[in-house]
Design brief:
3-stranded mixed β-sheet; 377 residues; 50% helix; globular; 12 helices; alpha/beta
């Protein structure tokens, strides 16, 4: 049994290492690509929001100061039944006539609130290019133009970089590093032509392509997935290309979670859609990665209480994980973070193991809360 388990752990390590090398290869491919198209389509920026009183005016300011003519874009805010003063603040502060505010019907749903808001925004949109972000995000003045420049005639969707704003607290720094890893993983997988991860905080797609794949019609039974599941449908069901815009001028910034409870609820929500990917090959890949992390915990306990060989395999697996993941995260320096303190990275790597296992299990079997709502998976 010891031999069988050891071989199994080594095979899981080899799979995980190969997965990380695919991400590195994809990032290298993205870095070698150059924008060669100056998009001139009309852009509709769609922003679903709920209870964003503290952030929505800064978001508005960023969108009013884009370095693109106001006759080339519009901004569509969609209120998802806020019960604070977000709508009042927003409407009283709008100073340009290309910015609009709509509200979804006050109907009780257990799921898909954000998708319903995005759908309304797309329905109202005049642009062929839909650009999504969130009301708690800020954007550079170059954001719209830089994302638009990625759209050649065969481009269906473009994912963009998102970072957590820097903060002095250890918890915030750990979140910034971990989130950078997620964004870079998503970018590398897109560059490797196997798109899995993206963020609706910075996502653009053609309205016609959204319609071609049926929009969110088959996704309304899930509370999450307005970004990744849509991207995967476009990649698998159309001949359009999916791209990642790895350009600091396209950067979107948002704040890290204020506390551990908010962090875990967010990660549970993100993890909740994994089992519902239509591409079962992706589900198998993610399941093997989950088993690798479960294996790390098992090896540690087996090494301490059963046989020392498992402790050696644990150390080998952990070192390989750390070295390759560090080489991946380094790609984000200068865009997603200023630097990577070694002590912070080592702590994050250790916490990464129980966090991944907890998020995957709780996301698969539990419900979660978001913006004052208790949501079903």
């Amino acid at each position: 049994m010891t031999v069988i388990l050891t071989i199994s752990f080594i095979l899981l390590l080899l799979y995980y290492v190969s997965f990380l090398f695919k991400i590195k290869k994809g990032l290298k491919e993205i870095e070698s690509q150059k924008q060669s198209y100056g998009g001139n389509e009309f852009v509709s920026v769609v922003i679903p929001f709920r209870n964003e009183s503290g952030t929505i005016l800064e978001n508005l300011r960023c969108l009013e100061t884009q370095n693109i003519s106001t006759d080339k874009y519009e901004v569509i805010y969609v209120d998802d039944n806020s019960d604070d003063d977000s709508v009042r603040k927003l409407k009283s502060s709008i100073s340009k006539d290309n910015i609009f505010v709509y509200s979804v019907d006050n109907t009780n749903y257990n799921r898909a609130h954000k998708k319903r808001a995005i759908e309304l925004g797309i329905e109202k949109a005049r642009g062929e290019i839909i650009l999504l972000t969130d009301a708690d995000c800020t954007n550079k003045t170059t954001w719209i133009n830089t994302m638009l420049a990625e759209f050649s005639g065969n481009t269906g969707l473009v994912s963009g970089p998102v970072k957590f704003n820097p903060d002095k607290t250890l918890f915030a720094k750990l979140q910034q590093l971990e989130f950078a890893g997620l964004i870079l993983s998503g970018a590398g997988l897109i560059g490797n032509k196997t798109p899995i991860i993206c963020s609706s905080a910075n996502l653009a797609f053609r309205k016609s392509v959204f319609s071609e794949v049926g929009g969110y019609k088959d996704l309304m039974g899930l509370s999450s997935g307005d970004d990744e599941l849509l991207m995967q449908k476009i990649a698998s069901d159309t001949n359009y290309e999916v791209k990642f815009c790895f350009n600091k001028d396209a950067l979107v910034s948002t704040n890290p979670n204020e506390n551990l409870e908010a962090f875990t609820q967010q990660r549970k929500r993100w993890a909740s859609k994994g089992l519902f990917y239509n591409n079962k090959g992706i589900v198998i890949q993610l399941s093997l990665i989950f088993l690798f992390y479960i294996g790390l915990i098992a090896q540690l306990f087996l090494g301490l209480f059963v046989d020392h060989i498992f402790f050696y395999s644990f150390v080998l697996s952990l070192l390989a994980k750390m070295l390759i993941e560090y080489s991946v995260v380094k790609k984000g320096v200068g865009i997603l973070m200023e630097k990577i303190p070694l002590n912070l990275f080592l702590l994050a790597e250790l916490l990464h193991i129980p966090y991944i296992v907890y998020s995957a299990i709780s996301g698969a079997f539990g419900n979660f809360s978001w913006k004052g709502r208790e949501l079903e998976r």
